[in-house]
Amino acid sequence: MIATINPATGETVQTFDPATAEEIESAIALAAARAKTYRTTTFAQRAEWMRAVADLLEAEADDVAAMMTLEMGKTLSAAKGEALKCAKGFRFYAEHAEAMLADEATDPAAVDASAAYARYQPLGVVLAVMPWNFPLWQAVRFAAPALMAGNVGLLKHASNVPQSALYLADLIRRGGFPDGCFQTLLIPSGAVESVLRDPRVAAATLTGSEPAGRSVAAIAGDEVKHTVLELGGSDPFVVMPSADIDAAVKTAVTARVQNNGQSCIAAKRFIVHTDVYDEFATKFVDAMAALTVGNPTDPSTDIGPLATEQGRVDVEELVADATANGAQILCGGTRLDGPGWYYPATVVSEITPSAKMYTEEVFGPVAGLYRAADIDEAIEIANATSFGLGSNAWTTDDAEIDRFIADLEAGGVFVNGMTVSYPELPFGGVRRSGTGRELSAHGIREFCNIKTVWIG
């Protein structure tokens, strides 16, 4: 079902009819036709449209925030922050895309030429399969660079955020981009394969679960089409004795419960050196237990509901499995009574390798707490997962910083802070957290043909 269901109440607010086969065909045909002409527009023209999109989004930020909160339950303040971050992302690529995609010259004499260079050119129609947890930002971090590179987009968003999906396509159109540059397809997951296999679709990007990523990658591989995949993570947050413990605790709480705990780059496994474990654990548990769980529209709320009923069930099952395998619950651990899909801030310790939570991602406000004897054991625990998205390390020791940068198996290492996505920095993972990169110059080049030009 494609529908807006308020996670704070469980009430179905609005349902949407899936696109028909004829509507899907019409959208792909329009995108393919538009790609042929849009690729010839100038960077200056694209930037003008993109700045207009950013202006509209900033003006509408309060209403957009309310829409996102209604659809997936994030707090209003977090939702407004997301809307403004999207506007920043649009402006970043409007400002920098032309320089990022400038021709790259080489020494012509070295290759027996009078001139030789690499030119970045758009691939054409790109399919984006996006998740619900950041309904706008996840899609914008694809849309902004892709559009500025001269590609056109087809968005298949998660089925529980249809209003956000439709809003983004309409926003881009109202900013001045020609019809067909960016369209939303309200389709179920089962319809993705036929769209991706269509020869008019050149490439795909997906943010979501590992099974979804495997499926899209397999189809794209069969069709020999490029993909960028971001498939989640179980990010470590390592605390060493030299760290500022109070600052680490404060950041750890934010890093775990941001977006109601439903963030791929949220810190999920807190690995603390034994010398400071007791101090950190006491302060961390107290801070987590003090958080307010409730209506996401209330300014005093720290944690709203989980986005889906099944999501809460998944969290409960992982916590139950951990305790069945010897883990201890230090706070939280029990769903809240009443309507809505609420789950409290929870800290679990003594997690054994036999528990699923030891290696799997918990998509909710649940923190795993681990004790490490030294830096070697801390890194061993941190890497004891098939994921490798973000990572965090707290230390003021330069040698330890070098070790963490070198040995944490992740797409990013944030020292004395929490993992955050910035337009200026590449974003992505290794191992089963995905392939390719979003954001920065690396992200805009993902959906370009890097064409070699040699002139004799």
Describe the structure.
The protein is of the alpha/beta class and 456 residues long. It has two domains: 2-232 and 430-455, Aldehyde Dehydrogenase, Chain A, domain 1 (3-Layer(aba) Sandwich); 235-386 and 390-415, Aldehyde Dehydrogenase, Chain A, domain 2 (3-Layer(aba) Sandwich). Helices cover 41% and strands 19% of the residues. The protein has 14 helices and 18 strands. It has helices at residues 21-38, 43-59, 61-72, 76-100, 137-148, 162-174, 192-197, 210-223, 245-257, 274-289, 309-324, 375-382, 398-407, 440-445, and strands at 2-6, 11-16, 104-105, 115-122, 125-129, 152-156, 182-184, 201-207, 226-230, 235-239, 267-273, 328-331, 346-349, 366-372, 392-394, 414-415, 434-435, 448-455. The strands form four sheets. The protein has a seven-stranded mixed β-sheet, with helices on both faces. Helix 9 links the parallel strand 10 (235-239) and strand 11 (267-273). Helix 2 (43-59) packs antiparallel against helix 4, helix 2 (43-59) crosses helix 6 (162-174) and helix 3 (61-72) crosses helix 4 (76-100). The chain is globular and about 65 Å long.
Q: On the 0-100 scale, what is the average pLDDT?
A: 98
Helix content: 40-55%
Assigned CATH architecture of the largest domain: 3-Layer(aba) Sandwich
Number of strands: 18
Strand arrangement, largest sheet?
12-13-14-11-10-15-16
Question: How large a portion of the residues is in β-strands, by DSSP E?
Answer: 15-25%
Tally of helical runs: 14
CATH topology of the largest domain: Aldehyde Dehydrogenase, Chain A, domain 1
- CATH H level of the largest domain: which superfamily? Aldehyde Dehydrogenase, Chain A, domain 1
Total individual domains: 2
Poorly predicted parts:
none
Q: Tell me the distance between the termini.
A: 59 Å
Shape: globular
Largest sheet: 7 strands, mixed
